[in-house]
Write a structure and sequence with these properties.
Low-confidence stretches: none
Number of helices: 2
Helix content: 10-25%
Strand order of the largest sheet: 2-1-3-4
Number of strands: 4
Bound molecules: zinc ion
Mean pLDDT: 85
Shape: globular
Distance between the termini: 17 Å
Length: 91
């Protein structure tokens, strides 16, 4: 999955958690937005580009969620842990 092109995951959202202990920022980034710039990169390569918008640190955890059409944004029917504890890839 990490070797697939980001553009294949349109309609999903990345939940990015900051690694910096003093920040702990978390934000949701629509794949559609990232794909405008990085759609031809693999998911793994895009993870290397992600930085915290608040402090600029690398993410400590990244989840991919698929949003269910018509539901609230907090409801997702798929969660993939891409980075961090229990994830496919470890830093
Ligand atoms: Zn941060």
């Amino acid at each position: 999955m990490l070797a697939s092109r980001l553009a294949l995951w349109r309609g999903h959202v990345l939940v990015v958690a900051c690694a910096a202990p003093r920040c702990r920022g978390a934000r949701r980034v629509p794949v559609d937005t990232l794909a405008q710039r990085w759609g031809e990169l693999t998911v793994s390569e895009v993870l290397d580009h992600l930085r915290c918008r608040t402090c600029g640190a690398s993410p400590g955890g990244v989840m991919l969620r698929r949003l269910v059409a018509g539901s609230r944004p907090s409801r997702a029917d798929l969660v993939l842990h891409l980075l961090g504890p229990g994830a496919t890839r470890r830093r």
